[in-house]
Specification:
The chain is α/β, with parallel strands linked by helices. The protein has 15 helices and 17 strands. α1 crosses α3, α2 crosses α3 and α8 runs parallel beside α9. 48% of the residues are buried.
């Protein structure tokens, strides 16, 4: 069956076929950003399908980030279609404006690298890595000890070039286009981009300060998601960290669905001071990933990964077909930093906590609710992202639009605290309060 909209013709009898036709028209430029789509009943009439099928097609398009529902304005193509990276949803920062939108760590809290790089160079001279070389044994032993210390169950180990590299390889080998996957909402923009690129169907799970909401995860699992992604600590963008009680509730839910793939992101290792409460091992297929990017700097990024044997074998196989391995110079440098205790985790975590808590408390004093339990960011619900960001820019501050991170949750902005100093907190809170209209209450929205 078919229907005609402006410059293109879409054929399809199912929700998936109708949604795919609209998505193709958007990617090919035959349906421009902001273009209106017909109401559900009109779409159903033109396509000769049931209204429920038409509604399901629009739901798929919303979940994929292709369209948005704008109240009385109806359903329209999003200004940024799914083929566009969420990181491209950005603002231009004028000269003289403090940029709090980037999500980077404080360079002053990163460790000096001279000794670590020199040690890696000496090791390279003694035993240079050649084709067929395995991951650095010293780094693997250190990673295994750190994981055992935090209660992660024993598993296979591999080294990847960061969290996203590991997650991409795991999802690409375990899932197929169209498979549903539970993702945090709001969540990490790069993960949401990856889900779209892989053709997976995101099923949003709400988040509060203690992590994913059990009721939402339960619904996603009952709906048949094939995989679940959870951030253990320093969740981006909200700062959520899974507590012991929340972990127990989530483990109980996951245990009833043992075939679901669990992907656990613990990128907070090394710069947060709340304990890890791992979910790893509760399902038959699982991985836990740790990145060094925030503790040692984005250019010294790698990620030890642990998990069940089958999943890790597939990850390593995919890695061998692509980059082969992570540079042993980098692996040995990270091993040196870990072995020598180059980062004082408690001091670094305390520094970030002082900035986050100071801003959240100052905002609360002005009637603005914000979130930032761990990590580098504070998440501030707003009535209108564009208006709030514009007002904030006029006052000399740049924040990141929450649209990068949201699937269904209401508008918000993300403020990175890593460059803030104590004297900045009061004036920033005052300017944020002035920029925010009717802040939302409750969970993140």
């Amino acid at each position: 069956m078919s229907f005609v909209l402006e410059k293109y013709r879409i054929v399809g009898e199912t929700a998936s076929e109708l949604a795919a036709g609209v998505e193709t028209a958007v990617s090919e430029g035959r349906l421009s950003p902001g273009a209106p789509l017909p109401p559900i009943r009109e779409l159903a009439r033109q396509a000769r399908v049931s209204p429920s099928t038409a509604a399901a097609a629009y739901r798929l398009l919303r979940e994929r980030g292709v369209v948005e529902t704008a109240g009385r304005r109806g359903t329209r193509v999003r200004p940024r279609p799914a083929s566009t990276s969420r990181e491209d949803i950005r603002i231009e920062v004028p000269p003289g404006v403090r940029d709090l939108s980037q999500g980077n760590p404080d360079a002053a809290l990163l460790p000096p690298l001279h000794d670590a790089l020199a040690a890696a160079a000496r090791a390279h001279e003694e035993r240079p890595a050649m084709y067929g070389t395995h991951d650095d044994a010293d780094l693997l032993a250190l990673a295994a000890a750190r994981l055992r210390r935090d209660g992660v169950p024993p598993g296979e180990l591999a080294i990847t070039s960061g969290t996203l590299d590991a997650v991409e390889r795991v999802l690409a080998t375990a899932l197929r286009p169209g498979d549903p996957i539970a993702v945090e909402d709001p969540g990490w923009s790069s993960l949401l981009d990856l889900v779209a690129v892989l053709g997976l169907r995101p099923v949003p799970v709400g988040v509060d300060d203690e992590g994913p909401l059990p009721d939402d995860l339960g619904r996603a699992l009952r709906a048949g998601v094939r995989a679940v992604v959870v951030t253990a600590r320093a969740q981006n963008p909200t700062g959520a960290a899974v507590t012991a009680a929340r972990a127990a509730a989530l483990r109980e839910l996951l245990a009833a669905h043992p075939d679901v793939l669990l992907v656990e992101d613990d990128h907070g290792d090394g710069f947060v001071d709340v304990p890890l409460h791992p979910l790893a091992g509760v399902t038959s297929r699982w991985v836990l990933v740790r990145s060094t990017a925030k503790a040692f700097g984005p250019d010294l990024r790698l990620a030890p990964v642990t998990g069940d044997r089958a999943t890790l074998d597939r990850l390593r196989g995919r890695q061998r077909l692509a980059v082969g391995w992570v540079s042993h110079l980098l692996q040995r440098a990270v091993a040196h930093l870990w072995r020598t205790g180059a980062v004082d985790t408690a001091a670094v975590a305390a520094s970030y906590r002082e900035r986050r808590d100071g801003l959240v408390t100052a905002l609360a004093g002005r009637g603005v609710r914000a979130h930032g339990r761990t990590g580098l960011n504070v998440w501030v619900p707003v009535a209108d992202e564009s208006a709030a960001i514009t007002r904030l820019l006029a006052r000399g501050w740049a924040a990141a639009p929450g649209a990068r991170n949201r699937v269904r949750t209401p508008p918000a902005i993300r403020v990175t605290v890593s460059t803030l100093r104590p004297a900045d907190l009061a004036p920033l809170a005052a300017d944020l309060a002035a920029a925010v209209e009717a802040p939302s209450r409750g969970r993140y929205g």
